[in-house]
Each structure stands twice: as structure tokens, then as C-alpha cells.
């Protein structure tokens, strides 16, 4: 009773271009972001992947990307929202605290500034996806468009290993297999924008 989940990051936004933090803050897709979503759609079409269910976070950049990729309005869920960066929202990315030595995420560094702990974000995404996927039929294919830190938190939560240096760029896709018995298994990280 497996299901295939494509967990994807949104396309480029105005704040991405400006090098600003946009966690809980929202920002529209740029023309390039729209083009990236169109390329992701072409990737899925080339691979003959069709979606039985389309989800996105409630944030505009994710729901717009999902609609462009899947050709349908997604069901929007708050559990897919981006990590809240607290006082750093909409500020230059260079103002963010540095990771601790050996860390691959902000961990709990943003909590004193009103932000979220990456582990809580990962737990939120995990719990929500597990609940939704437990309710869909066998052998269904699901697209869920979310955000970079939310995806990273989810990957930490499921204990999957990502090769060193891999980041979730715009429209990056994590292909996962889900079954209630095996939970989530990461099969691949895909860059649909590479030629």
C-alpha cells in the first residue's frame, strides 16, 4: 500500500532575488520563478508522472508554483508553510546567525528571535503529510509544494541522508515513497531545472 510523494520547493521569488529572508513573509514569483515552475511541469510530463492529489502550503509562492506545475488549484495546508524566521523576516540573508559547527540547519538558533526550531518545523510537516497520505488510496501519486527550510526539517525528521553540499534550490524535488509500515523513504533529490 505505497504512495509516491513529490515534495517540491517553490519557484524563485522577488525576495529570493533580493537576497532577503522570506520564511513566514510572502513574496510573489518572479518571471524566472514562473519559468522554473513551467520547466518542472515539463519534467513531470516527460517522465509521464500524473498527480492524483496536489497540495501546497498556504503561501502564495507555493500555491502558485503548484498550480503552474500541476495545472490545477492545490489543496492548501498550513503544515506545509515555511519556517518562521522571527525578527529576521524580510531582512538580508547575511544578517542570519551562522550555523553551529557541524550543523546542517539553523536548529534552534532562531527561537530567541521569535522564530521556529527546525525540528518543530520538520515534525509539523511530517505529521501533516503522514495524516493526509494515510487517507489517500493505494498507489496514488501526490505533489506537495512547500519551502526550502520546511523540506529540510522534514528530511531531518525522517532521518534521511542528503549528500554533502546538496541544497534545495528553487523547484528542487524530493521523491519519497510512503507506506504506513515503512513510513517515508527518500528515493531521490531531483533538479528539474538542469538540462
UniProtKB/TrEMBL annotation:
Look up the domain of life of the source. Answer: Bacteria
Query: Does Hydrolase appear among the keywords?
Result: yes
The entry marks the following residues as binding substrate, namely: 9-16, 61
**What GO cellular component term, any one, is given?**
cytoplasm
Q: Which spans of this chain does the record mark as coiled coil?
A: none
EC numbers on record: 3.1.3.73
Enumerate the GO terms in the molecular function aspect: alpha-ribazole phosphatase activity
PROSITE patterns reported in the protein's UniProt record: PG_MUTASE
Q: Cite the InterPro entries for this sequence.
A: His_Pase_superF_clade-1, His_PPase_superfam, PG/BPGM_mutase_AS, PGM_Phosphatase
Q: Is Hydrolase a UniProt keyword of this protein?
A: yes
Give the keywords, sorted.
Hydrolase
The name under which this protein is listed is Phosphoglycerate mutase
According to its UniProt entry, this protein's organism is Streptococcus merionis
* Lineage, broadest ranks: Bacteria, Bacillati, Bacillota, Bacilli, Lactobacillales
Annotated gene:
cobC_2
